[in-house]
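I hope you will forgive my troubling you with a question about protein structure. I should value your view on which stretches of the chain appear to form regular backbone elements. Here, with my thanks, is the record as I have it:
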Amino acid sequence: MSSRILSHPARFAGLHSEGRSRVFVISELSTTSPRVEQVATIPPGVEVNAIVDALNSAAWSGSISAFETAVSELPEPVVISLRAALENARREGDVLTGFDGVALSQLSEGWMSMPGDVEDHIEAAFTMGTELLMENTLDEDETVRLRVRIFSGETAYGERWRGPVGDGITREVVDVSVFVERLREPRASREEFRAFTAWVPDDDDPSLATGEIVLEYLGTALDPENNFRVFIADDRLEPDSVLTERNRMLLWRALNEIAVDLDGTLADGDDFEENSGVYEDMPEITHGQSHEWWRQLEESAQALTEAARKGDHSRLVPRTPGEEALIALATSPGWIEMAQDMMDDFDLRATYEGLPESDADGAFPSILGELTGDTDVEMLWGAQFAGIEDPGDERNQYLGMGDYRPDAWHTVFPGREPEQKADTPGTRGTGTAS
């Protein structure tokens, strides 16, 4: 049995008491605990019910002409408050108006993987005369899923959806097969979108219509703090730092490729040594280590990947010899070149080019020294420095290096806090991030 829940997330109400009239917005109507917030106080002599009726009409239908007429004589601060409340209320509800201008009612709600069997649900909606509203969401284990809600009635595309879109929003009308392909693109996992089924009238014969999908990208990142696919820009960069936004983004991608390599090739079991590019590129002293040792290195790579993505500079500073080696490897020419080449594969080129430029862009050899204060770990790659990893070695003692033997690679440096065990995003569940 369907629950007749109001489809719109908010509606307006008025209250007149003690000589004052106030307008309230009631939100989260589909929950058991709706929220009530005051929007504005209406001056004496103005009929508050007329204002409320105009607000609700605009929220449901998408047409604001009656609202603008109703508030034309109100003080500007009051109008600004009412407009802001209306804009917030219309963000979701404006796609849920039927042919007759009456709001649709929610019948059911569910989640599915992307694209999953969404094509079957869309075809069923067109057949049964119902409306689908689809949005991407991020669940607690960072899997992107499609939230699908079914509403009574159907929506006509009409002139309203051919009009201008809001700032930062892009819209396209596509058939079902194209929409399914859009769900497979990296953008669908990084940027918030909403999509709904609609009957689009034929340009030549308005009596004919085609079932299409209206897809709108909202111009905002999908849960950026928790979504390992989203790079978080930070304009608070120290002026003399070589860890510029562009350098950090490429460091993020290089570290991610290292984590992906280890995750995938360690799953191959006995073929790890033959298939892993990280194994091949690490110092020779690491080549006899167990798979468990390499798993620990993968965990470190994932932690550093997330720190580079978020701009968490304190966590990006290596805590162990192994993490120093990972930063050294990630900033080497081969892995930076791979990160650059993979930008287009994950649809990240526009994000990268939108970051501010700096004279220090490309100064990857200097990143390790900035983070650690020295580049001693790089000597582990030089055959002429064989044995320097041993704290008993005279060269090691002269430099004050400490223990860089493989058994110490996962031991936290004195004075650094051990990392608290927690799920690290990175490559979990997909083998790659984008």
User: Anything to note?
Assistant: The two ends are 41 Å apart (CA to CA). Strands lie at 5-6, 10-17, 20-27, 35-42, 105-113, 131-138, 144-151, 170-174, 191-201, 209-221.
